[in-house]
Amino acid sequence: MKIDRLLSIVILLLQKNRIQAKELADLYEVSIRTIYRDIEAISMAGIPVVTFQGAGGGIGLMEGYRLDRSMLTDHDIKDIVMGLQSLSSSLGGPNVSRLLHKFESIVPASEKEQFRVRTTQFIVDHSGWGNQAAQEGKLIKVKEAISQTHTITFTYRNAEGAITERNVEPHTLVLKGQQWFVYAYCRGREQFRLFKLSRMSNPVVTETAFTRRDLSYEVLPWNEGRMTASRAIQPFTLQFNRNSRHLAEDWFGVEALHEQEEGIYTVSVPFPEDAWAYGFILSLGPDVVVKEPAHLRDKIREMALRIASNYEDDREI
Which end of the chain is more exposed for a tag (fewer CB within 10 A), N or C? Predict the structure, then answer.
């Protein structure tokens, strides 16, 4: 969140006399232009930021300046705490917990109950259901490697089932669509790749350090347009009945449903046709039918028959 970055920059400037814009850009993994926009926003908030020119120059705060609790409104603190709560549900760790307690500690005792109510009115929990121990272990390893700028090795199984050994320079952890990914420079392929955490096994942080490479975080491979650029997207028309209507509402929203007749609804959605789309349609269950396109109906029917054949009584297990 931008507010987290702005506050973090202010705290960092309070701790250091001055710091280079490039160092801030590298630290927060944004462009130098973004850092200068952040500095302008901090200045407009009334914090005296000074730019020092020449050798040994950089960005700093006016001498003697201290951060006052009064500069943060109750709404500011509430938004920061809610952002930290969301972060702690997915990444966790002692650093986030300590920062969360620091902000909660500056709330007066007489206002703590009201503050607790305000900060629990909206909760974002990125953690999955069930036992997440395996994923949390991988997250810890990857975070360690990114923090130390050390390479990490792991065994990777791609969507086609091919298994490879990888040695990568991890740059960024990405949470997208409730799935964790690692954006890393693969030393074997000599280019950046996006690795799905659930497909990684046996991660090991090595003793080999690396230098972070220049990245443009304005155009990245997890951006939806780039992820689907190489795959043709076409509209699928799915039919739901009253038993499966809730699935359509959960996935596509109530406004996407078109009632054809009593208890029968259709939804038209754009998807790239691939293994994920087939699996998604099958996961909706027997009360959902593909209406268009015709070749997709045939594909789903073929897959459903293959699944059914696995459960025939005379089939060997």
Answer: C
